[in-house]
Amino acid sequence: MVFFYEILFTLVAIAAAVIGEVWSRTLAVLFLAAWLGLISLGYASFGARLQAAEGLSDDDVLWYHNARDGLRHLRLLFGIALAVAVLWRLLAG
To answer: 73: how many CB neighbours lie within 10 A of its CB?
Structure first.
């Protein structure tokens, strides 16, 4: 599942770079911020589901743990990408 998250990150990062070069760097920053917000929401959702894990099978709990860990990794990548995009916006104008 982590491989899927890395492909998703790569595609979104390429799209953000294209948006920044073709239209606006500010729009690229907002695009990455929206993705970071969406991923943070998904991470919180999986965490909440694990807190209320009553009635879940062991396989389901394992799946939720793996999905949450993948989103944690993706959240870190998008946080770094957003910081770099803001720096790109400030330095390049």
So the answer is: 17
